[in-house]
Amino acid sequence: MKILVINSGSSSLKFQVIDSETERVLAKGLCERIGIDGRFTYRTDTGISLKEQTAMENHTQAVHIILDTLTDPEQGVISKFGEIDVVGHRLVHGGEKFTGSVVITQEVIQAMTECNDLAPLHNPANLVGVEACRTLMPDTLMVGVFDTAFNQTMEPKAFLYGLPYQYYEKHKIRRYGFHGISHRYVSRRAAQFMGQDPGRVKTIVCHLGNGASICAVKYGQVVDNSMGFTPLEGLVMGTRCGDVDPGALEFLSKKEGLDFQQIMTILNQESGVLGISKNFSSDFRELKDAEIKYHEKAALAREIFAYKVAKYVGSYAAAMNGVDNIVFTAGIGENDSDIREEICSYLEYLGIAIDELKNREEGEAVRISDASSKVNVLVIKTNEELEIAREAATVAKGLKKRPEKVGKGS
């Protein structure tokens, strides 16, 4: 089964073609600056590579370029559109409506549209990608894989805020958690790597990138996730503030004469390690280089980030009454050995001991804790596209057995 995986943003569209039987990536690429000047990159598993300026007025044109390239006699990996069995779409926010992956029907699109207020930057862009694919591939099965779905096993004690209950009832204000596709893939890959049954271990996944979250996964189900009603809550991130006292925002508004929209812009785009480093950078590689050169605020930003991660890990170990695996993933988690070491230095009370040489190894999956460590500490490369392809394949195969489930949460 050949699956086209689509991750659509407001002005970009990432894609991969994956053979679900072998899990081989046949081709992948990126459409950028859609509606502006257009940039297209493309690579196949046979070594064909393209990088060019290509005008794309909208997402439908971007999808058209992708399909034309995939079916090109010299550069493509399929001979016709019909060879794509399923299109798997990454969908960010499904609210409480979706606890699993679904066939995308008009009912699903309507339900997602109703969640637009919960993810105004993500859901509309995701739906644009869906509509573009439906326009050009009307007979191809479309499957939605939600970033929030894996987190729907959280109990009310974890997802409710200390607000009047009526606001949850009326507006569904609660913790949803994000990066669920990554957390699901990584937690299961960690158990597989360690020869464990995912349903019998307690794992804390640290998805550390420009957007960062931590997820507590107990016996295969999410107990808690550091992101909340939106992806703004939780850790200090690249440009996002993470946890902050709401009272400080009222104070800041009065002192600086800022309206609510200006405050939100600061919290989302001007805070995090960028703000702490006095606008030096939101890139941890640049902050690391600056720290070596004794840039005080760059060093402080990295220190605060590591401290916040360690606090969440400790709280989630308590929430699960123990932990078997702590896993680092995503851009920072996979590549910044110094950050990993600093985070783990706070966790020695858990019996964690890091092997400094292993901590500097690279690979798809590496155990960086030494033999004496009471908790396995791992670095695993996340693969959200593969997880989406697996989910899409599962839904497609399930339709043959249970056609009455079309459009319902799995």
From TrEMBL:
It is an enzyme of class 2 (transferase). ATP binds at K14, H207, L208, G209, N210, G211, D283, F284, R285, G331, I332, G333, E334, N335. It catalyses: acetate + ATP = acetyl phosphate + ADP. Its EC number is 2.7.2.1. GO terms for cellular component: cytoplasm. One of its GO terms (molecular function) is ATP binding. Its cofactor is Mg(2+); Mn(2+). It is found in: Cytoplasm. One of its GO terms (biological process) is acetate metabolic process. Pathway: Metabolic intermediate biosynthesis; acetyl-CoA biosynthesis; acetyl-CoA from acetate: step 1/2. Belongs to the acetokinase family. Homodimer. PANTHER family: ACETATE KINASE, ACETATE KINASE-RELATED. Catalyzes the formation of acetyl phosphate from acetate and ATP. Can also catalyze the reverse reaction. This is Acetate kinase. It comes from Enterocloster citroniae. The gene is ackA.
